[in-house]
Design goal:
Number of strands: 2
Distance between the termini: 51 Å
Radius of gyration: 18 Å
Mean pLDDT: 90
Helix content: over 70%
Strand content: under 5%
Strand order of the largest sheet: 1-2
């Protein structure tokens, strides 16, 4: 099987599992599924950070338990904690992550890596829970931004890629791939605007901003893998690598998209 076919087949299987879960899973089941994703991604992050085997498993177990228990333990305080996680993610992705990549930081200290893993994964988990409560259409519409951008960048980069985006971080990514993603998302914004009646220009601006965050999340994980001397975060998903390889762009886009929706709800 060719790498491209393996990639497409894995994506099709993931969608066949994920989309029905979005559409029909009750809140308790959705919480369990997303906690499982957090646990797998946390273990892969620990491996990228070169944690020993036992601490890596304990780290993954701790984040999984947090993802399962926190909404119920916090009760009425859960929305406040959820908002705090989204603000934490916004501070990291808008402030820290660009400086991290510009400075080529290694930051290999175990405590720092463990803290960054929490900042990457728990806000993403909180965003997935929040978006699920807004309805399957909202969740799928937001996640489609990342899926469309990733697919368009992949194929446009393979066909037209000439100019490297960040060769010291991820040699395979090109400016032509980013341009292809932007064109695809412009079309997607047009479809959304016609479907839900939102003004096209603000919607396109929001989608373009999320594309920037998507690229940033992808580059951030690529840099961590390069520093760690690993090609993929794992081998769970043929053609894609590990779970963290599949959700890297979501860690940067979903919390910020949720923050935008929360702000719109409060100002409407």
């Amino acid at each position: 099987m060719t790498p491209l076919l393996s990639r497409v087949l894995t994506a099709a299987i993931l969608l066949a599992v994920f989309v029905p879960a979005v559409l029909w899973a009750p809140t308790w089941l959705w919480t369990i599924l997303i906690a499982g994703v957090v646990g797998v991604a946390a273990h892969e992050w620990a491996r990228l950070s070169h944690f020993p085997a036992l601490p890596a498993r304990l780290y993954a177990a701790l984040l999984t338990v947090c993802a399962l228990a926190l909404p119920y333990v916090l009760g009425t305080q859960w929305p406040i904690f959820q908002n705090a996680l989204i603000l934490l993610a916004a501070a990291f992705w808008l402030g820290v992550a660009p400086l991290w990549l510009l400075g080529r930081w290694h930051a290999e200290q175990a405590f720092l890596r463990a803290a960054v893993g929490v900042v990457l994964l728990l806000p993403t988990w909180a965003a997935l829970l929040y978006l699920h409560t807004r309805g399957p259409g909202v969740l799928l519409a937001v996640m489609a931004i990342v899926w469309i951008a990733d697919s368009a960048a992949y194929f446009a980069g393979r066909r037209f890629g000439r100019h490297k985006l960040a060769p010291a971080i991820s040699p395979g990514k090109t400016w032509e791939g980013v341009a292809g993603a932007l064109v695809a998302l412009a079309l997607y914004a047009g479809v959304l605007s016609g479907t839900i009646g939102l003004p096209l220009l603000p919607l396109f601006a929001a989608v373009a901003g999320l594309l920037y965050l998507s690229v940033l999340g992808d580059l951030f994980e690529s840099w961590i893998k390069r520093v760690s001397g690993m090609k993929d975060s794992g081998d769970l998903l043929p053609g894609h690598g590990g779970m963290l390889d599949r959700v890297d762009a979501l860690t940067s886009t979903l919390p910020l998209a949720s923050g935008i929706l929360i702000w719109l709800e409060r100002t409407a």
